[in-house]
TrEMBL record, chain A:
This is Septum site-determining protein MinD. Residues 3-159 form the AAA domain. It comes from Candidatus Defluviicoccus seviourii. Belongs to the ParA family. MinD subfamily. One of its GO terms (biological process) is division septum assembly.
From TrEMBL, chain B:
One of its GO terms (biological process) is regulation of division septum assembly. SUPFAM superfamilies: Cell division protein MinE topological specificity domain. Prevents the cell division inhibition by proteins MinC and MinD at internal division sites while permitting inhibition at polar sites. This ensures cell division at the proper site by restricting the formation of a division septum at the midpoint of the long axis of the cell. The gene is minE. Residues 88-118 are annotated as: Disordered. Residues 107-118 have a biased composition (Low complexity). The lineage of its organism: Bacteria, Pseudomonadati, Pseudomonadota, Alphaproteobacteria, Rhodospirillales. Belongs to the MinE family. It comes from Candidatus Defluviicoccus seviourii. The keyword Cell cycle applies. This is Cell division topological specificity factor. Keywords: Cell cycle, Cell division.
Amino acid sequence: MGKVIVMTSGKGGVGKTTTSAAFSAGLASRGHKTVVIDFDVGLRNLDLIMGCERRVVFDFVHVINGDARLNQALIRDKRLEHLYILPTSQTRDKDALTREGVERVLTELREQFEYIICDSPAGIERGALMALYFADEAIIVTNPEVSSVRDSDRILGVLQSRSRRAEEGLDPVREHLLLSRYDPERVERGEMMKVDDVLEILAIPLLGVIPESRSVLKASNVGTPVILDPQSAAGDAYRDAVGRFLGESLPFRFMRPERRGLFQRFLRRSA
Amino acid sequence: MNILSFLRPKSTLPTAEQAKERLKIVLAHERSYASAPDYLPRLQNEILQVIARYVELEQDKLTVKLENFGSTSRLEVNIDLPKTAASVAVSPANQADRTSDDEATAADDPATDARAVS
Ligand SMILES: Nc1ncnc2c1ncn2[C@@H]1O[C@H](COP(=O)(O)OP(=O)(O)O)[C@@H](O)[C@H]1O
Ligand SMILES: [Mg+2]
């Protein structure tokens, strides 16, 4: 039986889709059969980040409405044999997702896949609730910034009260914090909250710290999950986070500014 | 002393520290509301209506809060009465025998704080 993992945050633009792409590719490259689903109905984007936008024929909403079979809508990744993408509709709105429909699709996916990654839309309304409702685990994507931390706190409250696990009195959804767009140099200057500050406030286990990194934009430009870029610090950080998710204990990296000389700085700029 | 030092802000707390402190305060407040049962707004409204039978009270002068302490929870009702209201009878229901003692304490302490442990 596959595990359902939701990438959620409350706030938009913090890195949920980037993280969904990275995690699903990371899990698949380690041999776990993984599917990543775009729950952001109407604002389809996961397909672009995964680089499969031209292969979308049927989508999640078609499957829910019975207009297509699940296997017709699943897109097999061209790079990783264990990775599949279930894109969402661009024309429908978030009301197109019904709880029964989502449950039916997830049940079918649980039989075929080890991990089912749900890329949540922003907000705490219908679309976001639908993405988190059936979750077994939640990765809370947070930026070290006041509004993002506050929204993460809200979404934690929602997970603890309005998820299926909460409503049915099962074991609670397992929560993980993924702190993204972390800039150690700004932290050092006292301009950005440090990891410990955010941990103290949200009080959930830390899965990873992803540094602010130019390689994320470059990866999205070409439709490659950043975790597949071997040169990228963000990619390294995501690889570590996936390892921790699978139970490895790895030291946290990229939390202190790199001490580099002028020459290295120059090299990096031009890289 | 640096001649420009007066230009620097008084608070030397780094902005990241200020962010953390502000978040702690606002989240302590929001968490207590998030866990509140659905009936709390209705309860608040009905209490307000009862009080309004005796004194004029603005909506925002009454707060109802439920806090959890392990196996019990505390319902906290805070009512800020206006200074004059404590002695003004709005309805005949207030004609009950009140001693002058009562009025004195009420006037001294306009914020009445009623607490009940459930
Ligand atoms: N670690 C990072 N470093 C730099 N930019 C990032 C990082 N993570 C995300 N971004 C950028 O932030 C923006 C929002 O990311 P996205 O994953 O779409 O967020 P969400 O899905 O939460 O709305 C994108 O432009 C993305 O390239
Ligand atoms: Mg997104």
